[in-house]
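Hello support,

Our group uses your service weekly, and this is the first time we've seen a run hang past the timeout. The protein is Ribbon-helix-helix domain-containing protein. I'm not sure whether the cause is the sequence or the server load. Input pasted verbatim:
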Amino acid sequence: MLEPKPKSIRLDGMSTCVRLEGLYWAILKTMADCNRITTNALLTGLDREVQMYRGGVKNFSSLIRVMSTAHLLKMCPEGVRTLIMENIA
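Update from on-call engineer: The timeout came from a worker crash unrelated to the input. Re-ran successfully.
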């Protein structure tokens, strides 16, 4: 779960390698399955969105970790989400 696993993906036709812990790959797969798309399609959509609204990001792996965590937070009870959000500096 904690060991980083590199995977080759294609973002808008460009091949790249993303190195994430197994936990995050599992979260991404679940998110993709829920949306009936591939993990690669999910990441391509995320990349396009961040390019459009932010002009890109320096650390795509970090963005994926934050997005995955935010996805899980949406499933938490409101009280838990509130406690976590209060601790964000």
